[in-house]
């Protein structure tokens, strides 16, 4: 079972690839929604308002992926797909890559464009901090205060990540569990007397 994914931690530095007087500026951004992607695109269109094309690809999701590619006026599949190919090649998600082109007066042909957009995307990814993360399941533990000790023992023994808690007469603890361990941890708490465990929908 694959329970990890890779993403970038922050926006990449600007990179530049040149071919026959055309300039291709490459950028990579961490995103979680299409709205975030659109926001970055608007900023780049304002920054590079004299450019000819703002081509991009993004992918969102940890297991079920959504993606979009855009050639932005370049010949079909000469820009967006080569950029997306690099997202797949580097095995990253929750990411937007934009390549901004300033036309240099010489046509590059489809092959030249594919190479330029692919290379600028690759350069942006090579300059990014790519981090591997685990895919986690979130569980809520509900119990009365006297059961606190045995609940904490299980949490400590299994080195579980507590992400939130409400400790009053009736207690709630939210834990994040790596997907491959989720069933085992669920069973441990499910078999603990007077402790209720439920999985939070992702």
Strand numbers in spatial order across the main sheet:
2-3-6-4-5
Quick one: overall form?
A: elongated
**Percent of residues in beta strands?**
35-45%
Number of domains: 2
The CATH topology of the largest domain is given as Ribosomal Protein S5, domain 2
Q: Look at the structure and name the CATH superfamily of the largest domain.
A: Impact, N-terminal domain
Helix content: 25-40%
Low-confidence spans:
none
Identify the CATH architecture of the largest domain: 2-Layer Sandwich
Question: How large is the count of helical segments?
Answer: 5
Q: Distance N terminus to C terminus?
A: 18 Å
Q: Please identify the top-level CATH class of the largest domain.
A: Alpha Beta
Let me know the largest β-sheet: 5 strands, antiparallel
- Radius of gyration (CA) equals 23 Å
Give the gist of this structure.
The protein is an alpha+beta fold and 202 residues long. The chain is 30% helix and 37% strand.
Keywords:
alpha+beta; 4-stranded antiparallel β-sheet; Ribosomal Protein S5, domain 2; 11 strands; Alpha-Beta Plaits; 5-stranded antiparallel β-sheet
What does this protein structure show overall?
Belongs to the IMPACT family. One of its GO terms (cellular component) is cytoplasm. InterPro entries: Impact, Impact_N, Impact_N_sf, Ribosomal_Su5_D2-typ_SF. Residues 20-125 form the Impact N-terminal domain. This is YigZ family protein. This protein is α+β, with helices and mostly antiparallel strands. It folds into two domains: 4-132, Impact, N-terminal domain (Ribosomal Protein S5, domain 2, 2-Layer Sandwich), CATH 3.30.230.30; 135-200, Alpha-Beta Plaits, CATH 3.30.70.240. Helix content is 30%, strand content 37%. It contains five helices and eleven strands; from the N terminus they run E-E-E-H-E-E-H-E-H-E-E-H-E-E-H-E. It has a five-stranded antiparallel sheet with strand order 2-3-6-4-5, with helices on both faces. Strands 9-10-8-11 form a four-stranded antiparallel sheet, covered by helices on one side. A two-stranded antiparallel ribbon has the order 1-7. Helix 2 runs parallel beside helix 3. The two termini are 18 Å apart. The model has no long low-confidence stretch (mean pLDDT 94).
């Amino acid at each position: 079972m694959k329970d990890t994914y890779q993403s970038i931690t922050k926006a990449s530095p600007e990179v530049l690839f040149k071919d026959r007087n055309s300039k291709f500026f490459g950028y990579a951004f961490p995103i979680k929604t299409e709205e975030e992607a659109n926001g970055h695109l608007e900023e780049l269109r304002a920054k590079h308002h004299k450019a000819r094309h703002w081509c991009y690809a993004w992918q969102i999701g940890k297991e079920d992926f959504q993606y979009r590619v855009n050639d932005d006026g370049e010949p079909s599949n000469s820009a967006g797909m080569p950029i997306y190919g690099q997202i797949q090649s580097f095995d990253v998600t929750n990411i937007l890559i934009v390549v901004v082109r300033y036309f240099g007066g010489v046509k590059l042909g489809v092959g030249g464009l594919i190479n330029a957009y692919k290379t600028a995307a690759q350069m942006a990814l090579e300059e990014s901090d790519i981090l591997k993360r685990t895919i986690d399941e979130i569980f809520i533990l509900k119990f009365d205060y006297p059961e606190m000790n045995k609940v904490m023992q299980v949490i400590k023994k299994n080195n579980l990540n507590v992400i939130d808690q409400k400790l009053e007469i009736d207690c709630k603890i939210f834990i994040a569990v790596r997907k491959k361990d989720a069933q085992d941890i669920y069973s441990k708490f499910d078999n603990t007397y007077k402790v209720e465990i439920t999985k939070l929908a992702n």
